[in-house]
Amino acid sequence: QVQLVESGGGLVQAGGSLRLSCAASGLTFRAYGMGWFRQAPGKDREFVAGISPSGTTNYADSVKGRFSISRDNNKITVTLQMNSLKPEDTAVYYCAADIYSRFNTINYWGKGTLVTVSS
């Protein structure tokens, strides 16, 4: 059974930083693109960042230069470092696994972790 378990969410002031982690199990981690999505209240879920099995990264324009995604194939984890946080970054953040690394059709989702950025 595949599990993606997020951690690291919480409350932070604008301008601060948070580090989200996703621990994966039950899948061939090295074969999957791993990504982060977010969903703010009343809005659709949106792509934030993704990393391919080879380490190629891509980001939503709204987070470029502020967020950084990385993966550790030995620890079977993917991390999202979020800096210079803004109130509009407030959302539930979801870890995702996509075998094709295109992040338009997700194979597996985590349950999410809440990030709240106060102004």
Brief overview, please?
The protein is mainly β and 119 residues long. It is 0% helix and 51% strand. A hairpin with a 6-residue loop joins strand 4 (33-39) and strand 5 (46-51).
Q: Any chance you could write out the topology, listing elements then pairs?
A:
Blueprint: E1 3-7, E2 10-13, E3 18-25, E4 33-39, E5 46-51, E6 57-59, E7 67-72, E8 77-82, E9 91-98, E10 108-109, E11 113-118
Parallel strand pairs: 2-11
Antiparallel strand pairs: 1-3, 3-8, 4-5, 4-9, 5-6, 7-8, 9-10, 9-11
Features:
single chain; 51% strand; globular; 119 residues; four-stranded antiparallel sheet; seven-stranded mixed sheet; 0% helix; mainly beta
What this model shows, in words?
The chain is mainly beta. 0% of the residues lie in helices and 51% in strands. The protein is built from no helices and eleven strands. The radius of gyration is 13 Å and the shape is globular.
